[in-house]
């Protein structure tokens, strides 16, 4: 048996792994690849050696990649590449595939060597897309179901309204036959009154259908500042038609003007699911109360409910129904868990509620007593109250700085000049601006200071923009994130991402930040 040389053994070990590994020197040239890498990228063995690593990068992001590579060499630590961004790689035939890449550096006499381990995640991405599609499909079908429920309730009211109209018309027709003369003041007054009643009923019918149409057309969009009381009022009005005669619905709303960051359509759906559950729990009739409240969560309360401390708004649906036994209460949020008979429930109502609320940085609490009733409480991070708009000054362009003064923007960029500039532009326009020098610094400041918006660079040494955003949201969930970048738009394709392209101009920056915090010229 021959004894292989160390280099040969190493080569054998390298080729035996299922991972594709590419070694690069500090000028960005490939110095070695293993068999998996050659196969993954579609090159003959060793054909890649000597080429710049950018031959494996999609053309659109080549320049960005060179910048990233240089930045990595300044702080070469083992870490995943482009955390939070969607990366892709290019095969020899020009086709691209989504990739997860991790980097490891080695300092040698010949300079820093970097090993990139490349993982083809085509299948995972496809699976994720499938899941998202199914979720969207589910959202849509729940919505259709809700519209069905609402339509049934509204059809009932609509019928009553039509009844009024037909009845009035009949009375008027009779009058025409029976009144001696239509040309007296009394007869005219009577005619007018009858016609007005028809007109009123017609208006009411139009309102009913308009509400239904608005609900039906509301697409699932994205998180935006929404007034909780407004959603509760509208949803309650719509739902009041679907409850049947023995169930009453009242609202006790105490968060006038206060807003949360949520998808309006989904939040309506949450309320809808809770109210319909409450109705179903009261077959003999009863009372449903929808209430809202401002809830400042102290450290201790916050710990109990598993949320970061801070201001929250609660949305509560209380019923006087059957209540939920403990052994069932443990399972109600599970998808497909239902106690209703076949065809009556899918068991997805509360799972949807839970998903939506969590996505918005909140939580759902359940309190129930068998035979007495049930309370579902939703807590959502509160956005800062909107300052009262200043009295309009005719003809002069509106000065928005007073309204901007209520918001605090945290600016993070590793380039001193850039972050100073952005902060200065913001301050001059009325905003409060804070400067963070690193991701860690940003998180620390957000922990101790009430920050409304994080304006951050995307790729930085140390914590990246998306990493920082995640960490800041963990301590201050109501923060809205805006990325500024010269090139990362090509790398990041997430849909919810708010971007401003460098170079930043005052006009573009203000337009974006004003929009994010909800300031619009009057
Ligand atoms: N207010 C309530 N009072 C009593 N039981 C409730 C209440 N809300 C939910 N439940 C219980 O939780 C279960 C799960 O609720 P969920 O909304 O997830 O599904 P579902 O109402 O059964 O079906 P779907 O909402 O899909 O029509 C219900 O079947 C019921 O047993
Ligand atoms: Mg339900």
Which terms summarize this structure?
Beta-Lactamase; 6-stranded antiparallel beta sheet; Heat Shock Protein 90; Rossmann fold; 15 helices; 522 residues; binds adenosine-5'-triphosphate; elongated; alpha/beta; single chain; binds magnesium ion; 3 domains; 5-stranded mixed beta sheet
Assign a percent range to the helix content: 40-55%
Bound ligands: adenosine-5'-triphosphate, magnesium ion
Please provide the count of β strands.
18
- For the record, the CATH class of the largest domain is Alpha Beta
Based on Cα principal axes, name the global outline.
Answer: elongated
Structural class: alpha/beta
Question: Compute the gyration radius: what is it?
Answer: 31 Å
Whole-number average pLDDT?
Answer: 86
State the CATH architecture of the largest domain: 2-Layer Sandwich
Do you know the CATH topology of the largest domain? Heat Shock Protein 90
Please report the distance between the alpha carbons of the first and last residues: 87 Å
Output the CATH homologous superfamily of the largest domain.
Histidine kinase-like ATPase, C-terminal domain
Contiguous helical run count: 15
Q: Estimate the strand proportion.
A: 15-25%
Per-chain topology:
Layout: H1 6-16, E1 20-24, E2 30-33, H2 35-41, H3 62-74, E3 79-80, E4 87-90, E5 96-108, E6 111-120, H4 122-178, H5 185-217, E7 224-227, H6 228-239, E8 247-253, E9 259-262, H7 264-280, E10 286-297, H8 299-305, E11 310-319, H9 326-329, H10 349-359, E12 363-369, E13 373-381, H11 401-404, E14 408-412, H12 416-428, E15 432-436, H13 439-448, E16 453-457, H14 465-475, E17 480-485, E18 498-501, H15 506-517
Parallel strand pairs: 8-10, 14-15, 14-16, 16-17, 17-18
Antiparallel strand pairs: 1-2, 1-6, 3-5, 4-5, 5-6, 7-9, 10-11, 11-13, 12-13
The chain binds adenosine-5'-triphosphate (ATP) and magnesium ion (MG).
Pfam families: HATPase_c, PAS_9, Response_reg
Subcellular location: Cell membrane
EC number: 2.7.13.3
